[in-house]
Specification:
By secondary structure, the chain is an alpha+beta fold. Helix content is 35%, strand content 21%. The protein contains eight helices and twelve strands. The strands form two sheets. A six-stranded mixed β-sheet has the order 3-4-2-1-12-11. Strands 5-6-7-8-10-9 form a six-stranded mixed β-sheet. A hairpin with a 2-residue loop joins strand 3 and strand 4. It is elongated.
């Protein structure tokens, strides 16, 4: 083996190792200054690392490239959000129609959907009708005008449901909405209290956090700064929403559903604010490819449904829609206070 081939091989091994160390550090610690690096899935960087180690094997036959390849494979299995569903092999997926009971108990079906302002060929009630096939009990809508939220309510419940609108967010419910926490300014979040059939009350929060930074020209310093500021905006926005929730309800003792469009992938640090009190329904019970954006080639899971310990997610799935650039998340929850639909 020539000295040049060996040097090339070891250079590629070293590059793969450095990329691995940097990737593990940034995804584990989530420093804001490196938000531009973690805005894409870890498996994209893993693909680059595997390409480097594979190239090293071409020049440097032997153990080092193979070891590096194995390290990357383990890292992706442990660190990739998409790999979590591998442990849910026995889970059933939600199906269209009336939600099936789980072990003899009725469930609450909740859906979150960014409607993209009906800009994807959804005329009239096309998108609401598409959603109606799933017979949800509660729907969290983002990027929908008030009259469109009413279309959803009419299509789903024939005038017998309830709904609330704030800016371009909407909550639609099969059951009576008891109260709504007033919002001001450009805060697109909503918070309502819903009365369930058995008399129990649950809090429902619908969020649409600040739109994500999209500049991936990582060779530009300005792109790193833009992603850093953008992430901080979302963290502050979510912190304020959680503060209002704590001030207006006996949280976390009160049953609460919390979801919407976070504009941040599941691995982003913003979700850690909810981790102490909420369960990520898809991470707990999801099946299939859970990423929700962009619908034709979904590489990011930015639409989420969370719940407090009062609810147990039993089925969860991301469903492609024909009339939005997001996929919708459908989750069936068990809840101890419920005695029927």
């Amino acid at each position: 083996m020539s000295i040049l081939r060996r040097r090339l091989g070891w250079t590629l091994v070293a590059a793969s190792l450095l990329l691995h160390l940097f990737t593990v550090y940034t995804f584990a610690r989530q420093p804001d200054r490196f938000a531009a690096f973690t805005v894409v899935p870890i498996w994209l960087w893993g693909g680059a690392g595997l390409a480097l180690s594979s190239g090293a094997f071409y020049f440097l036959r032997g153990a080092p490239p193979l070891i590096m390849t194995g390290i990357w494979a383990i890292t992706l299995l442990v660190g990739a959000d998409e790999a979590r569903v591998l442990t849910h092999g026995g889970n059933a997926a939600p199906r269209p129609g009336q939600p099936e009971k789980h072990r003899g108990q009725a469930v609450i079906r909740v859906v979150t959907l960014n409607c993209a302002l009906f800009n994807y060929g959804a005329h009239g009630a096309a998108l609401p009708t598409e959603l109606a096939a799933w017979q949800p009990d509660i729907v969290l809508l983002q990027d929908a005008w008030p009259y469109q939220v009413r279309q959803f309510a009419d299509a789903l419940y024939g005038g017998h449901g309830d709904y609330r609108v704030h800016l371009t967010n909407g909550i639609v419910s099969r059951w009576k909405i008891q109260r709504e926490i007033p919002k001001s300014g450009q805060d697109r979040s909503q918070q309502v209290r819903i009365l369930l059939p058995g008399g129990a009350e649950i809090e429902v929060v619908n969020v649409h956090l600040a739109s994500a930074a999209t500049d991936l020209r990582l060779w530009r310093r300005a792109a790193w700064g833009e992603h850093r500021v953008n992430r901080l905006d979302r963290q502050q926005e979510l912190a304020h929403i959680c503060q209002v929730l704590a001030q207006t309800t006996p949280f976390p003792e009160h049953p609460t559903l919390f979801g919407g469009d976070f504009n941040a992938p599941a691995t982003d640090i913003v979700h850690r604010q909810l981790a102490p009190d909420f369960v990520d329904s898809f991470a707990a019970a999801g099946t299939g490819w859970g990423n929700t954006y962009q619908r034709r080639f979904p590489i990011l899971r930015i639409d989420h449904l969370y719940a407090t310990r009062h609810f147990v997610p039993v089925r969860s799935r991301a469903i492609t829609t024909r009339h939005s650039d997001h996929r919708m998340v459908v989750t069936d929850f068990l809840a101890a206070p419920l005695d029927g639909r």
